[in-house]
Each structure stands twice: as structure tokens, then as C-alpha cells.
Amino acid sequence: xxxxxxxxxxxxxxxxxxxxxxxxxxRSAHAVExxxxxxxxxxxxxxxxxxxxxxxxxxxxxxxxxxxxQIEQDRINLAGGINGRPIQVxxxxxxxxxxxxxxxxxxxxxxxxxxxxxxxTNSNRAQATFTALGDKIGQSGIPFLSDISVxxxxxxxxxxxxxxxxxxxxxxxxxxxxxxxxxSARPAYxxxxxxxxxxxxxxxxxxxxxxxxMVADHRLKMVDEKxxxxxxxxxxxxxxxxxxxxxxVTVGTARTGPLMKGLIEAxxxxxLLLSGRIDxxxxxxxxxxxxxxxxxxWDELPEVYNxxxxxxxxxxxxxxxxxxxxxxxxxxGWGKGECKERPEVATADPxxxxxxxxxxxxxxxxxxxxxxxxxxxxxxAKADLAARRAAIVTALKSTYASGRGTFKGSFxxxxxxxxxxxxxxxxxxxxxxxxxxxxQLAPVQYVRLKSGTxxxxxxxxxxxxxxxxxSIDDNEKTFFAEFYLSMRDQRDASIDxxxxxxxxxxxxxxxRHMTVNVLHDGGPNGxxxxxxxxxxxxxxxxxxxxxxxxxxxxQRFAIDLQPKRGDAPFVVQPPPVALRDKSVATDGWDQKxxxxxxxxxxxxxxxxYTHTPSVVPFYKASFVWIMKRQTTDYFLRVVVPLAxxxxxAYLSIYIPESHFEAIVTIQVTALLSAVxxxxxxxxxxxxxxxxxxxxxxxxxxxxxxxxVLSILRVSRxxxxxxxxxxxxxxxxxxxxxAMVGAMAVYVYALSSRV
Length: 754
Prior knowledge:
The chain is α/β, with parallel strands linked by helices. Helices cover 38% and strands 24% of the residues.
């Protein structure tokens, strides 16, 4: 037994030393040396959340906020924290209780290490909190990055900001401009009495449109969180008499259905502009409503994803991005029979709309934690807590002021209007045309200019049908693509407006390798659809391969679009992915999925005369195809030869020990053969070791281990100890093939991953 333990220790030491030589993958971008990590007493950052137990299944918002703020906290602390001191995120959960909201804010204000507060979404609870503690909040100087939609609640307190767009500066102006675009002369409004958000929006519209601007203005009462049926009936009757040409409804998504049902029954069905989500309304009511529906949104664009978020999700397992859906057994609906069990799903889908809303909330709060740390770091190494709080507020109104600068978070870009202290986030107008069955962006959108005015921009209804992708070069990081580009002919839309930003720029010709052929110019034609311009495009494009899992990797191939001219911006609306062509001819690749991503970028500019900084924002769209590399060739050229090399080296141990020279010769030849095979393969220009590199290193390690075992088994000290020699024989004959088998299973699992 003692001999076996000695052998095990010796082999383990050898194996561990060899294993340490195998790179395990790229180093994390957030990794830093331990000496750089933050230490000492922590600055606290309060994050206000509202958990719920009144819904059948968890919305996932609190879980997402907890996870992403924790990740951001760890990243900041590993990078040195705030001038060497760590931050500590403290979740303050009010469970939707107004008294607890006030108590949480009060305790945060009393915390001597509280650096900043983040959160507080509900307008009613926010109003109660600022009524009770407004003076203390203002006097504390603590930066409060709220999520309040009504700016008047915190207008008197210069240290309070909101991550929402301003009701007066964003939502109402966009509504008014859109009403003008559709030539509405008789709008009407239906809101909820005593609901802060609804009352404020109604008052803002009335002020902007003037006293004669709305033919009707109804503020309905609620009974047990539902609209009073008698008031619905009375309101519908009045609307039937007034006959509005559009109805603005801000009663909340859950309460909109009964109102729409009453309108349908009364035959009063003008277009509706809703404050809630169209996709959350009852499908039977939506399908039976005989007119267009509109809504404003900031994040959930139809058929388009946040491209930064999609890239991050692709790096991890789907399960790690799932937050929504946990059953809440305490919800009253289970006892009443209103809740239903959800069917089991084989694969988690983090891109489900409800789960994406949770992710959006979590990533927004994480970005605010990062912004707080960045602002506090501007105060200098010796600044006290009050100075750091002041530095954050100063950064919000100068460094990150809209038109001057932008905080580039991990998930979104953020800037704030110095006057309203609200996020500069102009909403998109989404519509559900009657009979279409799917939502899409309205034909016109709006962006906020540096001057504060709204500019109307066009929606390009555009699709890219990838025909073929070939000549994919991992070292040059380029690929050739041939595709059809089709766009709706409106307001002189043309491919000349589009800049293909990832098209390869050849330094030899100082131009891009692209050819564009016009197949249809949008006019009347018996062969092509009318009002649809169609182009055939071929060119060389760049991509950013991640080769850490090569050759069992999936890569992202994209065609990136943005406006060619700053004075002609646009946003892209693709068709539903279910209607897009999924057939792509590729050389050595299999398509897994496709999607369209969007991102907001900006051009930073500094006036060289006045030294005034400014930023010019614009939207980018990416038509993306995720493709998995085919591995048949790699198996035949690499895996199979390496397997035979290992088998031959392993079988040599059964040669009699009297022919020791032959045993070692075979094993050394096997090692040299593996090295020669590696050197014969095309080299990849990768910053990190690929999986292929690790497979070869594992092979070297196994053959070297067999050589070591063969030498030990014939050494004099071992031959004099029969038990030790027997133990080495067991390790040689059992442990080596077991490790090779485990590696084979690992490689097979990677090659089979979808």
C-alpha cells in the first residue's frame, strides 16, 4: 500500500505539472492582479427593487437586478474599486409596500457610507416617498438615479435623476409630433384618476395641444385596481358622440382590454395610441379591433434585438440567462384557479419577451452601478464621501450631459438632460396595422437633437437575404457574402443612403470590395412587387472570430448597416424572422440561427476652437447569421491520427520489458509524430490557445506520461518493490486510457453541441 501511495504521489505530481502547461482559454477581460483589487471599508450603493407575490410566475426582474448588479460590483472591485476602496451593492426590497419604500429610503439616507441610490420605479410610491422625505433627500446630496417616469415628483431636488425619458420632454412631444404626422384633428384621451403617471401624461398632452386640442378628456376611477364598468360605459357613450379620429389610452395594459371591448361593442373604434404593450393585450380583443394600434417603446423593438445583449448571451449557456418563470406558490391566483401550470420545455429560451424584459431591467441597474463608480472615481484619491457624491452629480450634468458626452455602459449608452435630469431616451413608435397580425415600427420615428428639438427620421423597411457566404478566412478575419437587399420605396429610399460599416477596406485601392446591381427600382413591374427596391450585392466583409473553441466553434457573421450621412438618419425594420429565407450556401459551415440586432452609437466631437465636447448619436443595424464550423475534415486530419498515435504508444507497454529500447523508441516516435502533425496544420492567428491546441497538448502529455511510466517501471528502485511496480502497471494500463476516454467524451460533447 505504501508503494502504491508513493507511485500515486509521483504520478500525480508529474501529471499536475504537465496539466498546468495546458491553457484553459482566454483570460477574462475583467481579470486583474490581486494587488490591484479594492480593499478597505466599502462604499454602499443602495438598489431599490419591488418583489411581487401576487403574480402566478415570477417576472424575474428582481433576480436579474440582483445578479447583474452583483457582477458589476465584482468587476469594479477587481479593477480597483473607487480609488482602492470597494463598493457594496445593497438591495432594498419594498415588496410593493409604500411604507416599506419610505422606510428603505430613510435607512439609506441614514447610512454614513451610502454613496448613491438606484431605482424606485412606481410613480405613486415615488410621490409618497418624496412627499415624506423630499427635503432630506435633497439635503443629503446623495446621487439618486431613480427610474421615475414623472419628473415633477423630483424636480426640486438637483441630486435626483431618472433613467426614464422625461414625460414632458420625450413622451408627450413625440406623441404630439406623431399626431401631427397622421393629421389628427380630433384626438381624445382616456386615463385613470389618481394615478400619477396617467394624470401627468394627460395634463401634458392637454397643455401641448391646447384647450381645443382634444375633443374629450376622461379620467376614470378604479375599483379594486380595475376600471369601474359604469364609467367605461359612460366614457364610451361620450366618445361615440364626440367621434375622435384617434384615442390616447393610458389606463394600464391590464385595464385596456375591457375598455377596448366596450369600444368594439359600441362601434367606436378609432386608432388607439396606448401607453401599455400591445403584445400583452388579450389576443381575441386585439384581433377583433378593426383599426390600427400604436404604442411607444424604448427597448422592445419588433423583430429586432439589442445586439450587445445578444453577443453576451451567446457566450454562455441559455440557462444562466433565465430569470422569468419561477412558480410563485403564494400567489392568490393559484387558490382561485386563475393560475395555470406552464408546460415543460426541453430548452430554456432566454430570448423570450418576458425574460428579455427582466434582463433589460437588470442590465440597466448594472449600468447605473458602473456609472456611479465612474463618477465617484473622478473625485480623486483623497476625496471624502461628500466630494465623491458631488462628483457623481457633476458627471451627470456635464460629462454625461446629452449632446456633450455619453456613458458607454456594458449594455446601453446613457446621457442625461441637464434641465429635466432625465435620461435622453427618445421612444420609438410601434404600430400594429389592422389585419397584419404583427407589430412593426411606424413609418416615421423621432430623435432628439443637440438643440433640444425633435427631428423626424424614416423607418427603412428592409431585408437582407443571404445567398452565399464563402472564402471565410479566420486569420484575415474576413468573408465573402452575396445577398439580396430589398427595401420599401418610400421618400426616395435607396441603397445609396446605407453605409456597410464592416465591408472590408482594401488599403491597396483605398476602397471596398463591393458590387451592387439594381434588380428593381421600385416602379410598376409585372415581375417584381411594386414599391419594393431590390438589389443584388456581393462583397468582402469583416468579422471578429472567437477561436477559443476552434474547431468546434460557432461564429457570428454580420452585415452591419448605418446611415451614410449624418443629416439623413434612419432606423431599420426587418420582416419577421419566420418569413425570412433560411437557406444559405456556405463552404464548411452550418447555419444555426439568424437575427437582426440594433445598437446606438455616437460620434464624439470636440470643437477645436471653443474646446466644447459634443456627441452625435445614430442607430446601427446588424443582420446576423450564427454558423457552426463543420468538423468532418478536422476529425479525419487530426482526431483520428492522434487517436492512432495514442493507441500505438499505449500498446507498446505490452512489449516485454527486456525490449525496453523498443518500447521507448515507439513512444518517443509517437510523441514526435504528434508534434509533426501539429506543425503541418495551417496556423491560426489567435490571441489565445484554441481547443485544437489543447487537444494536441493533452496528447503530448499522455505520451510523455507513458514514457515516464515506462522508465519508472524498469528502474532498479521500482523493480525491487513488487507492489510499487504493480501499482505503476495499473496506472499505466488503467489510468491512462481512462483519462484519454474522458478527453474523448469531452471533445465529442463539444462537437455535438448545437
